[in-house]
Specification:
4 helices, single chain, seven-stranded mixed beta barrel, about 30% strand, about 325 residues, about 15% helix
Length: about 325
């Protein structure tokens, strides 16, 4: 078990997400940076979808109430086990009574704590992930608070042999202050003028402070809409279309001066013009973006996007082989 002594800024239970219900208005939720999250589980020999903790900017103070092995991945907020620094991207042994604590992260946003056997909370609609807007899943549908006690699964056989095993440098993500985000253009981009499309692709965009697990807002250029009346059934603004389903990663233009990229806790549909969709592998980069991070959007074809996904899958398969218990 894990006892939360201090809650940190915003810590929730997450796994790989809640799929198959988006058409009913239920977003997938799940770890915002899936690449980092999966590596945490791989280090421990857990299935990649075992639940762990997602910590935002400042992690909690946690007491381990049994001997186990854990791993920290994602944004490198300084971490201590009994006041001694502990590394990231490595399997670490904890004894009963040990206390894990953190300082504010200086790079990235989301840090992950995975533990052998995973965090055991009830499965809701096929997932243990927290969806706070509906107070659903995770630990009582909310972020963690002091005195919460989390059940951990049975420590996996052989996991103590993993202690000290590290992720090779080539597999570690970078937390940059500027990013290139790849986008498949489409959906209702036909409502944006040619000048507006050029401005979208050629401009540098800046992450707003109004960004979270639901969506990230960016400013940086003016997107001119085409001078046509909105279609029947849409609102009166040039940014309106007849309501459509939004994919996760959708790039919406609610007005000429900002764009919004939808993330894991997003609304499932609405009536804003959508320029395109950020490819799934780059959503991890967005989730780790701090306010004022710069970004440029790069157009890809669907075939190119699928090739990126296949390469990512090959990379994970190679790492799985390296870290095999």
């Amino acid at each position: 078990m894990l006892k939360i002594l201090e809650p940190g800024l915003h810590t929730t239970v997450q796994d790989m997400g809640r799929y198959g219900h988006y058409h009913l208005g239920m977003p997938p939720s799940g770890a915002a940076d899936k690449y980092s999250f999966m590596i945490g589980n791989l280090l421990l020999g857990n299935p990649i979808d075992y639940a762990g903790l997602e910590m935002t900017l400042l992690g909690p103070k946690i007491q381990f109430q049994k001997r186990t092995v854990f791993a920290l991945t994602g944004a490198p907020m300084e971490a201590f086990l009994n006041n001694k620094n502990v590394p990231y991207w490595e399997a670490i042994q904890a004894e009963e009574g040990d206390i894990l604590s953190f300082k504010f992260s200086k790079q990235g946003i989301k840090t992950y704590l995975c533990i052998s056997g995973g965090i055991q909370v009830p499965v809701v609609m096929g997932s243990r992930s927290t969806y706070i807007l509906s107070q659903l899943g995770g630990f009582a549908g909310r972020k963690l608070e002091a005195e919460d006690i989390l059940e951990a699964g049975e420590t996996l056989p052989g996991v103590f042999k993993q202690v000290g095993k590290q992720v090779p440098q080539d597999f570690l993500p970078l937390f940059k202050n500027s990013q290139e985000l790849r986008v498949v253009m489409g959906l209702s981009s036909y409502r944006i003028s040619d000048e507006g499309i050029k401005a979208f692709l050629n401009s540098e965009w800046t992450v707003s402070t109004e960004s979270n697990r639901v969506a990230y807002r960016y400013t940086g250029a003016t997107l001119a809409f085409k001078g046509v009346d909105p279609p029947f059934g849409a609102g009166n603004n040039s940014s309106n279309v007849v309501d459509i389903a939004y994919p996760i990663g959708a790039v919406m233009a609610p007005n000429q001066d900002e764009i919004i990229v939808l993330l894991n806790d997003a609304t499932s549909g609405g009536g804003f013009v959508t320029i395109g969709t950020v490819i799934s592998t780059d959503l991890d980069l967005i989730a780790q973006s701090r306010p004022q991070t710069k970004a440029k959007f790069i157009a890809l074809t669907v075939d190119q996007a699928m090739e990126v996904r296949r390469n990512q899958q090959k990379k994970m398969a190679a790492l799985t082989e390296i870290l095999k218990v």
